[in-house]
Amino acid sequence: MWFGRRAAIDAYQQSRANYRQTVLNALSQVADSLKALEHDAEALQAQVEAKNASEEELKLLQANYRAGVVNYLAVLTADVQFHQTSIAFLQAKAQRYQDTVALFVALGGGWWNT
């Protein structure tokens, strides 16, 4: 009888420890997701600024080309740079979407379908 009681207490304590660890893991995942989203916001802002700067540079070089001040190679180089910054912007945006989904998953995603 005493062994049965002791086994039940041990099983309860093990279940309680497992539950506690599960909750701590879930909270850790949410915290990690929120930190990733914070980093993504900073990275996205930097990419927006870089894209805007390269777009402005391209426009200025195109105007200078039309005025005969620079050669077409400078315009092409600026165009390549603009497209590279546009791609980096889209990659940063995609990363933010992925991390947003990870946050929904960490929060137990799917609760809205019940």
Work out the helix count: 2
Instruction: Give the low-pLDDT segments.
Output: none
Major sheet description? none
Strand content: under 5%
Principal-axes geometry comes out as rod-shaped
Order of helices and strands: HH
Helix content: over 70%
**Category from helices, strands and their pairing:** mainly alpha
End-to-end distance = 44 Å
Strand elements, count: 0
Q: How big is the Rg?
A: 27 Å
Q: Number of folding domains?
A: 1
Descriptive account of the structure:
With 114 residues, the chain is mainly alpha-helical. It contains 2 helices and no strands.
Offer a quick outline of the entry:
The chain is an all-alpha fold. It has helices at residues 2-66, 72-106.
Give the arrangement of secondary structure elements:
Blueprint: H1 2-66, H2 72-106
Helix pairs in contact: 1-2
Give me some keywords for this one.
114 residues; mainly alpha
